[in-house]
Amino acid sequence: MSPPPCRDRRRPAHAPAARRGRADGGGGGRVMAAEACGRHAAGWALPLRPPLCLACAVGTLGDGGASLVRKKHALSRLRDALAWQALPVIRLLALDERVCASLVGALFGKSSLVPCQGEVLVHLVVELKSEQYLCYILDESQKELSKATTMRGSLPIFTLLGKLADAIPVFADILVVKHSNLVDHLPLGLMYPNEGVKAAVCYLYGKLYSSPVGTERLSAHFEEKLCGLFLNTLGHAQTKELQVNCLGLLKELLKSDHFVSILMNNSRTEEESENSDFLEGENPLPLVLKKFLLTRDEMLQAASSHCVAAVVVHSPSRYAPAFIHADVPEFLFECLLCNSEILIWSVYCCLLLLTEERLFFSKCHTVYGIESLVRSLQDVLQLNNVELHKQGLLLFTEILKRQPVEITLFTNRGICLDAIDVLMKTVDCPVLEVVVEAVKAVAAFLRKDHLSSPPVPYEKLQKLLEAVLKRCADLSPPQSSKNEEDSSLLWYPLCVCRLAVEFQSDPMAQENAFTAPGSESKETLSNFSEFLLRICDSLCIPMVMNYLERAVSSAVMEVFISALNTLFMVVPNMRIKFSKKLGMPSSLYLSALHSNPALNQACSRFLCNLCLSLYSATEKERISAQEEMSELLQKGLPQLNYTVAESLLLLAENPEAFSLDQSLCSHQHCFILLSYFAYTLGDRFVPEAELFLAIRNFLLSAQDRGDCPPPYILRAVLYLLAVCQDKGKGLDSRSLCTIRRILDNLPDLGLVYVHCPLLLEFFLRYPELMGRFGRQVLQLWFSWEDCSQTEAEEAGFGLPDQLSSANPLLPILKSNSSILLILLDLVCSSSVEVAQKVLLTLRTFLERSEDVLVCDLLRSRFLQILQQLLVESSSASLQANRNLPILLSLLFLVQLRSKGMRELDSTDFKLLHQVSNLCGKCRPRDTDLLQPSLNFLYWSLHQTTPCSQQRAVAVLLSNVSLLELLQKVLECTWTRSFPSEPAYLSPEDALLCSGWLLAASLLIYQHRYNAEVHQTLTLDLTEVLNAVIFRKKKPILLLVSIMQFLRAVLRQNFSSSLLVIVIQNTAHGATQPQPSSLEDAALHPLAMQQVCSLLVSLQNLLVHKDLLLSQAVVACLETLLEYLCVKNQDVALHVASQPWHRFLLLTLLNGGQKSVLQPEILRLMTLFVRYQSSNVISQKEISLILREAAKANLPELPEATSRALHLFLRQVRKDCFSL
């Protein structure tokens, strides 16, 4: 073939070749510049810079005499033409096949041209798109390879064929189908000791095996000739070119399971695979790939890891052991500490496949590589590669999930903390897909064996858990998402709960060592468990419930219920609180009816645990009943596949038709228990009226067949009847008779008692039940009250008020006063704790009740009780009776309930007599008995008419033992030591107050009615005065009581048939001391010194500005001055004119304008005006009071102030008239 003929062979004068002659060795002076070429038509010119004549270029390449420089130049210009003007070139060449063939032959020539010769040929053949040129090249290549004496000369052929196979997809098929004999030359290239030749051959092999046709046609060739040579070449490759081409060929081969089996020598047995000795020599592929992982070339490492993955993906169980025995995972983990995203991705994929083999974990490769993985994840999170994030988390999750329990993964606590930090960062990722994978990783991480290295990082775990739950709440799956993805997010809380439960049995996790002695650490299991309950309550449960409201999913529901069920075991001592907080949603009962067996079982287990927890909250001591109920619920709940309406019908079902069906009774009892616990938590998923009727029918049916339900079932039945009774028509006589018969067969009513006001009202509502069981129910009510209050306070979940107060009993008492008699019996016969609670209830009732008949009824009952006690009991037994003080306190409350003056009837006098006799049998130290008794006697004297008062005084004065006791009580005042700072009035001090007040009242009324005295009181006057003069921190009320007694004595001028006054030392038989002065003689039995001391003490007490004390002090001053005025008027005026009185007055007036009109100050100034103490009170103070009185609104002034002001003004007017 020759180039096309030229039309004009004349050479232009300006052609460079013409001037140079043949010095260039070219073909007769021909040039390629189109503007200088006159030998070819203008159509052969290509618009390049400078322009190119295609005909000249082809001619130059085909001219054997052209110089090498010209040929290289022509080849370079032709390459540019094909690159920029390929279409015009191909059109020109297509006009004449001879030109094409000539050009192809010239380019395929074996003369040493520039390296781009093969590139131009490949480009040309590609653009020509003709199979004949491919066949020509293959034929010529076969000839050249056959004639080649060495493989080095075949390198250009192998390189050209590889490039053609790379550029033309069908070239490989043509080669292996029509020119298969050419393939036989390739193994020789692999045996030639030149890595360039080997690299070219491997590249060509890679292209051939990338074709499905080539893979099929060359299968036998690989098994018979290529496999061994290739593995040897791969193992000894030194240059990067050969290494890359070998790995490329291996990648193509590994796509076929047949080739993988050959390469991995899969004929060995599984036992042989466990033996690492078989790896050496017999199966070098894992070792060769491991060698590439040892290089520092990231590209080779990525290719090697990709090849490992390509092998293992065919069958991890068959091929992974060989790589694991070769320690390939160890070097894969080392490769993670790089910066190449491609390499990291390849390693992630490879390790993920290896995790499917158990040998990967048993050889502890994960223990070695977990640090590298965590570090890699820390670095990867800094990159903006979402897929890499997901793949890394997926690998981390699989390792965490598949790691054997007996092999600790995190042997270093620092790596465990770093892992938590990584999980925290991934949870905060804005990409939902990454968050989903992160949540899965956290769920896999929350295993006891992963966190067992002490100390457990509870605080970091809390932060992680809170972050995950908040993230899940923010990214809760939409309604259209798949159920599998929903349950994956919600699976996390279940793993958290299980982790806390597993820690319960680990002493190391509970103690959490490495805490300094004596210090408190927050890193404790109890704090973590309580946090878990709070976070589930505040985040997890609302999140799931919100999701279930939008989309009902069986998978989500099952996981959620399982998590709640596990929460019961997280903090055992908070199980009851959690149950009450959680409640019993009726949807759980409906979920139990679901056809999904797994959901049915989960709901049944949860309902069983919830019911048992609620039962143990009130029945802590009945373990046997709890075990029986647990067995019933575990067996019956999974089979309770009835609707609410069907279950109600079953309760009234005739048992005769089901006499052989034991499941009916189980279904009835399970439904009753579920209804009971639901109603206790406020869930009325069954209508009250329908449930009331069904429960009644259930009882009647049980009675008809002679069956008695267990106590815990009766307990639920009675509660449901009590709660639903307002919605029903009430129980008829038959139903009441049935309930009474059933309850009569019980050994203890407490077995079926529920502390609920509605149940109490239920028993007290029907006379048939109240007469038989009223007392027992009331006793149980008061016995349980404090326990219920304590539990309500501890729970802090807002329990109903009906369990924390006795007030619900008050309306019942108001409607049925006969219950009061039962309560009084309880006060007498029950424990002190119960009696105290009854007293509080009766006190509240008496404060609110205005029914006089109630008080009369109570007084009559009190009289009967006291008479019986005094007759049947001795003094010692009375003093040991702990309920008697409560009864007396209640009697005093009834006495206080009587307002105004009233005549005492026979019952009152009998009570007065009995109480006074009771006091006579007591000792002074019996304060709990004497205190309410003396108060009752005192109040009886004061709250009655004069006629009844006279008889009452006679009754008391006739009781010698009472007066003897009163004598002893008063003498205790001198012997008692009072605290330095009394914070409150002690029982002993209160008794002393009552004694002094009663003694003062007896003195006054004995003198007023001249009553007969059978026993006198003897008191030392000095001791009485010293009790006021030397106060010694006595309580204010005691000082007031003593001053009341002192006033009574002063008013009677120390002359009373009831009281014997003795002076100090005369009580022991000494001679009565004589007065030392005329004043003392006039004031006898007082001495002037005692008067002055008493006066100073009263002044000091007045400065305290205590209302009660001030009133008593002023009254005592008035009485004292009256006594002095009677005895010696001069002494009275002298005492009233003491200069200290003015200082006292100014001190009292210093409190402001409001102090002027205080009744105590007005009475004190009235006293000074009366005794003409001008040096104490002046016209200025009198004018001040008059001005303030003129400004005041007199009708609005208190009664005491008005009366004191009236007395003051009268005294001032009287004094003015006297002046």
Automatic annotation (TrEMBL):
Any Gene Ontology biological process: meiosis I
Biased composition, class Basic residues, residue ranges: 8-20
Chain residue ranges for the region called Disordered: 1-28
Cited SUPFAM superfamilies: ARM repeat (SSF48371)
Protein name: Meiotic double-stranded break formation protein 1
Biological source species: Anser brachyrhynchus
